[in-house]
Amino acid sequence: MSDRLLVSTRKGLFTVMRNGGHWDISGVDFLGDNVTLTLTDPRDGKSYAALDHGHFGVKLHRSTANGWEEIPTPAYPPKPEGYEEKDMWGRELNWTTSKIWALAPGGLDEAGTIWCGTLPGGLFRSNDHGQSWEMIRTLWDHPLRKKWAGGGADLPGIHSICVDPRNAKQVSIGVSTGGVWHTADGGASWTLRGEGMRAEYMPPEQAHDPISQDVHCLAQCRSAPQRMWVQHHNGIFVSSDEGKTFTEIKGVEPSVFGFPVAVHPKEPDTAWFVPEIKDEKRIPREGKLAVTRTRDGGKSFEVLTKGLPQTHAYDVVYRHALALDEPGERLAFGSTTGGLWVSEDQGDSWACVTHTLPPIYAVRFA
Amino acid sequence: MAKVVFTPNVQRHVGCPTAEAVGATVREVLEGVFADNPQARGYVLDDQSALRRHMTIFVDGQMIRDRERLADPVKDSSTIHVFQALSGG
Hints:
- By secondary structure, chain A is mainly β.
- Chain A is built from 1 helix and 28 strands.
- Chain A starts with a strand and ends with a strand.
- Chain B is of the alpha+beta class.
- Chain B has a single domain (2-88), classed as Beta-grasp domain (Ubiquitin-like (UB roll), Roll), CATH 3.10.20.30.
- Chain B has 2 helices and 5 strands.
- Chain B has a 5-stranded mixed β-sheet.
- In chain B, a hairpin with a 2-residue loop joins β3 (55-59) and β4 (62-63).
- In chain B, α1 (26-36) crosses α2 (38-44).
- The termini of chain B are far apart.
- The interface between A and B is medium-sized, with 16 and 20 residues.
């Protein structure tokens, strides 16, 4: 079980510890700064924190025995002289890291390998614990990459990176918007996957185009990696063939809209979601904060509310703000209105740690 | 040598003491400063070596025009201020 949480917020990185059955804030780093995401590498215990300083750009820090040290931020290569590329708004696309949106460890046999997904769509890999970064040019130069579009932000970005636990050369990523992409050779070549997803915000002839899909979050079961779950802009989708094809799960109450998904590491049919009214409102239905859980691959869902506010709750939970611990017993999530909840029984009941944090962007067991 | 003064707000992230460097353009002077303080470079310039979107630079009190190439001329007696633009909020 994990007794420690790292909570990334608009105004700092908070450490939350379990003490005598209670979860309390035990420390804060980068107070006042915008911390957008963390990764704690299960292979060596090192933590990484992504910061967005606004004026001064995106930065990356790594934990040391004595605190944090700044390490290089993944950087885009020089744009070729005279090369022009416009974003979906007709503006010049700046080849520069404008957000770190995904951090994932490589395989167990790849000590020091870290994957990093960014806006405006660059995927990077480090083989030395983040000391240097290589852009995966095969994906950036893929002709279909230019069809990626804004979704979660004005610019397209990679928010989910799933390294196959059986073979670390097999990596799947989720793009908003740009669907699900897969490499079977460690990034040397890429295939667009995700047949079966449906985009109701697109004209009918493009609704089923895999590249039009606004994947909000992609999760892969650790012990059954063929099982993948997607929380999508307009639905929940499940795959039993490593993301090649997806089936839509319809009629989920209170809503199929949301941002995060977590899948149990040993039970591929068990997954959690945080529903919101889709999509123009993005608040819990009737002001009642809930988590939904399926234990049967999406045939049925339980609405879990014990310990969660059921009146006038307007918490939105972003895609990295729902966390599941390594054994799959404890969950935690944080909201845009600064609420943080922990469950020690797979979501059956929840305890509020605090409701006064700054807006929460990411929650991770560490 | 031109003098380069950095906004105090960057100092808590990375030390940027006032520095001097030789150069005929903003680019040349800044690259001279960043050669001695490489960590500061990414706080001022983006991945394409253009001025970050919400940063601004003044040469002797005049805001520079060329934010991409930083080709604005600099005299040996110039003072360059590297500031935050108010546009960032």
